[in-house]
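Before the break, one more example. Copy the sequence into your notebook; we will annotate it together after we see the structure.
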Amino acid sequence: MSAVLRLLSAGPGITVQDRGRHGFLRYGVTGAGPMDPFAHALANRALGNPAEAAAIEISLGGLELTSEGAPVTIALAGGDFQVMLDGQALPPAVVARLEPGASLKVRAGLAGVWSYLAVAGGLDLPYVLGSRATHTRTGMGGLKGRMLQVGDILPVGMATSEIATGRIVAPLLERPAESIRVLLGPQDDYFAPDQIAAFLAGPWTIAARGDRMACFLEGPKLSHNLGFNIPSDGVAMGAIQVPGEGLPIVLMADRQSTGGYPKIATVIGADLGRLAQARPGTPIAFRAVSHAEAVLARAEEQSFLSGAIPIEPLVRSLFSPEFLLGLNLVDGWVDARAPA
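Here is what the structure looks like once it is written out:
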């Protein structure tokens, strides 16, 4: 019998995401995909899946699910979330086996906004325009084009091999948001040099009204040297628009396909997840880098993902003195963090 995942509880904002729906922006179709592309790919690669396989993107609302029909091997990666398997605390980045009837609970923890739950064999859902990514505003992809909810059943693909379980060792997940690297442009010429300097100096704070479409920033208002309207052009994830009010908006995974405000800079690919994982109220700063540095940072991620993902057995990590000292009770959940 094939395995399925059944959702027992689900907070808002939980969707199925693969790497995204690419090649259709010229038709007005957004890419969607994960808010934290590296964490999404890491969870998949830890299971031997293709990095682009569909996984569950878990928001701060958390979820609880169970396996039915057959055992399922799952991997979690992303924010520092609380993870419980049948009452036992697990690290936030982990590979574990989910037996039929077992309960896996994932809740917001000390840090981060998104966690990714991948399954060995991937989620076996229909493709829409070559992708399983959910875009809720258009009702496209995922499960019926919507957020996941209690009672949903997700079919699991066939795993091809045995997979080691344990804590995922990935230093690249530890990415504080204090400094976000950007490439200036493509319309930085719409801003005088002192405004570019003000943008880089900040300080900026993540506003509470952000979502999968955009991250709003609070801080000093920027002024435009050549006005704030441009002919609409295509926008990439990470593009930083500055509308007439002067407060930057970073366009994220569910962004619109085009935009008509000047883009002062663009977050580099390797730092998209770092920004996405920053909770409202987090102070951040931007640092301009060269194209070569941006390429090098992305190459570092890809090099890690293309190798064997290190998995540390839980028998060692769960009972080491460092791990036991790291146990904290947070809102009734055990914060089980293995040693770095």
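The longest strand covers residues 103-119. Residues 4-174+310-335 form one domain. Try to locate both features in your own notes.
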